[in-house]
Design goal:
Elements: H1 5-8, H2 14-37, H3 46-52, H4 68-89, H5 94-117, E1 118-119, E2 122-123, H6 130-144, H7 149-169, H8 185-193, H9 211-225, H10 230-251, H11 264-287, H12 292-301, H13 304-312, H14 315-331, H15 337-360
Antiparallel strand pairs: 1-2
Helix pairs in contact: 2-4, 2-11, 2-12, 2-13, 2-15, 4-6, 4-9, 4-11, 5-6, 6-9, 7-9, 9-11, 10-11, 14-15
């Protein structure tokens, strides 16, 4: 991207960059602060209980952290109508954009595989990583993007119903308990394609129901891109989000909210949260023109692939090794927890500053 800095934000939807940046900032925060949870000296403290909120629910239920992946997949969908409209406006054909979508999906699949599946002396195949799953949801969302909104909604509901039926009525003995860890259809599917189960009860089949998140993101993007006035856009997104949350919670007694197998109730309630968050951020940034704080996070949101790969390939740990000797030497007198917490904050800031440096240099890593 070669734009003058004073016109850069005019060329982008700042509220979406803010949403994306906040999501990525939370993601790298988890990695940065995760080690504090293993420190027995802070167990039960305010810091410990706060950080614990930013961990996934063990099975049934919903924590704030369980929304990060839905946010990530939803935001990708929101951006699609804008990015592909630019390609079609400059003359790219449907075939050309289809090839681009297939190529991008293959790259996402490769990155998701390469990050977690290459072990010393052994190469395995796994499909639990968010990038690998996004490779499926992205391509399906692209193929459905030009369909009428009603058709897209019916399709996503169909995916959720299809998933629900598979989990409830799968006939294989030992894998026919729909909402029991490692005893459900998703676990059977993992054994079929990978010959193993994940450590945290995640299942590869999540890519099917969570396609709804990316497709609902596309629909939200189409609403924002439309000629409606801003308040109409916000009202539509917010009401749809409230409806999603209410339906998802209402379904919980029938189908429990479980992120690790992406039950229908989880997909709907988290999808509702995505829509509400987008409506809120659009109102704050695009209507109320509150931009100073959003720009801080948007700087991270403009390089999501870079910061994700940096944090997932050891960049965070590398920075910790550099920073920790100084913080331990300077702040150990305060107590054992203080140096670790200060280290985590400094490392988080350095990662933000790297994104800021890339932003100043107009370097944006894309696939």
């Amino acid at each position: 991207m070669h734009l003058e800095e004073n016109t850069l934000w005019q060329e982008r939807l700042l509220s979406l960059d803010f949403f994306r940046g906040l999501t990525m900032f939370l993601l790298i925060s988890e990695i940065t602060f995760y080690k504090l949870l293993s420190d027995p000296t802070i167990e039960g403290s305010i810091v410990f209980n706060f950080i614990k909120l930013f961990q996934h629910q063990q099975w049934e239920g919903l924590r704030p952290w369980d929304l990060v992946q839905p946010f990530f997949m939803f935001i990708v969908g929101v951006a699609m109508p804008f990015s592909y409209a630019k390609r079609w406006e400059r003359g790219d054909s449907w075939t050309q954009t289809l090839k681009h979508a297939i190529w991008r999906s293959l790259v996402l699949l490769f990155l998701g595989w390469a990050l977690y599946c290459i072990r010393p002396g052994k190469i395995t195949f796994e499909f639990w990583n968010v990038l690998a799953q996004l490779s499926v949801t992205y391509l399906i969302a692209f193929l459905m993007m030009r369909k009428p909104m009603q058709t897209q909604l019916i399709f996503t509901i169909g995916l959720l119903v299809f998933t629900e039926l598979l989990y409830r009525y799968w006939p294989v003995q030992g894998f026919n308990q729909p909402f029991v860890p490692d005893k459900n259809f998703g676990a059977w599917f993992d054994m079929l394609i990978m010959g193993k189960l994940s450590d945290g009860h995640w299942v590869a089949f999540n890519a099917v129901p969570t396609t709804a998140h990316t497709m609902w993101g596309v629909l939200a993007g189409l609403i924002i891109k439309s000629e409606r006035v801003d308040l109409q856009k916000i009202k539509t997104l917010f009401i749809a989000g409230i409806i999603g949350v209410v339906i998802g919670v209402a379904l919980n007694p029938i189908t429990p909210i479980i992120k690790r197998i992406a039950t229908g109730s989880f997909v709907i309630v988290s999808g509702g949260c995505c829509l509400i968050a987008l409506a809120l951020f659009y109102w704050l940034v695009e209507v109320k023109k509150i931009q100073k704080v959003p720009i801080f996070f948007a700087i991270v949101g403009m390089n999501p692939i870079f910061i994700y790969l940096f944090s997932q390939t050891g960049g965070t740990e590398w920075l910790e090794h550099i920073v920790s000797p100084f913080t331990e030497g300077l702040f150990s007198f305060i107590g054992e927890m203080a140096p670790q917490f200060i280290t985590a904050c400094i490392v988080l800031f350095i990662q933000w500053y790297i994104c800021y440096w890339l932003y100043k240099k107009k370097l944006f890593i894309k696939i």
